[in-house]
Structures are given as C-alpha cells and as structure tokens.
C-alpha cells in the first residue's frame, strides 16, 4: 500500500454511491451492482477517517526599525531574525510564499 493517500469528503462518496444506486433502480438493474451499492454506505462508514486541517500559507516579512525580526504574513507573529522556520510556530502557516 502506498504511503501517499488522497483525502476525499466521505459525504461526497456516499452521495455518489446513492446516486448510482438510484440510477440502477431506475434502469431496472437489480443485480450485483445494486447489492453492492445498497451496502456501500456501511462499507464507507467502516473506513477509518483522518483528522485533516486546511494548510495555511504565508511568508516571512522583515520587520522592525532595524530589520531585526520576521513577521508572519498570516497571523502577524514576530520572532527574532536569528532563526528562520519553514512554518510559523504561532499559527502553523507553511512558509512557502503563497
């Protein structure tokens, strides 16, 4: 199994399966596809979910009278220019300049 995983909205998957189930009913196809679609909600619910948060993006701006600290463009957090992080220790924004 790959370490890379795609995250999807569980509700979107369930809605898609329900839509396909309704489509099968309308077409009169009550075969194996219908049986699978009928139980798909429970199958999807049995898959463990992950806690995911939206990634915040920002960049370090130079601030102060003597350019002596960095300022997070996302939350305004200030820290000494002696250390640079690839994320803001205050808000967690990823410092990739976006």
Protein described:
The protein has 98 residues and is of the alpha+beta class. The chain is 34% helix and 15% strand. The strands form 2 sheets. The protein has a 3-stranded antiparallel sheet, with no helix packed on it. A two-stranded parallel sheet has the order 1-5. Helix 1 (10-27) runs antiparallel to helix 2 (32-46). The two termini are 32 Å apart. The mean pLDDT is 79.
Question: In whole angstroms, how far apart are the ends?
Answer: 32 Å
Biggest sheet architecture = 3 strands, antiparallel
The level of helicity is 25-40%
The neighbouring-strand order within the major sheet is 2-3-4
Low-confidence stretches at least 5 residues in length (pLDDT < 50)?
none
Can you count the helices?
Answer: 2
Radius of gyration, in angstroms, nearest whole number: 24 Å
Question: What characteristic shape results from the CA principal axes?
Answer: rod-shaped
Q: Which structural class is indicated by helix and strand composition?
A: alpha+beta
Oligomer: single chain
Strand runs, count = 5
**Would you list the SSEs in sequence order as H and E?**
HHEEEEE
**Which strand-content bin applies to the residues?**
15-25%
Number of domains: 2
Return the average pLDDT rounded to an integer. 79
Give the SSE map.
Layout: H1 10-27, H2 32-46, E1 57-58, E2 60-63, E3 69-72, E4 78-80, E5 94-95
Parallel strand pairs: 1-5
Antiparallel strand pairs: 2-3, 3-4
Helix pairs in contact: 1-2
């Amino acid at each position: 199994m790959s370490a890379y995983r795609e995250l999807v909205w569980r509700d979107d998957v369930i809605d898609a399966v329900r839509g396909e189930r309704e489509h099968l009913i309308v077409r009169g196809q009550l075969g194996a596809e219908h049986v699978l679609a009928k139980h798909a909600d429970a199958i999807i619910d049995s898959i463990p979910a992950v806690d995911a948060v939206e990634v915040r993006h920002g960049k370090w701006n130079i601030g102060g009278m003597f350019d002596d600290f960095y300022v997070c463009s996302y939350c305004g957090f200030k820290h000494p220019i002696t250390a640079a992080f690839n994320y803001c220790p205050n808000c967690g924004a990823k410092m990739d300049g976006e």
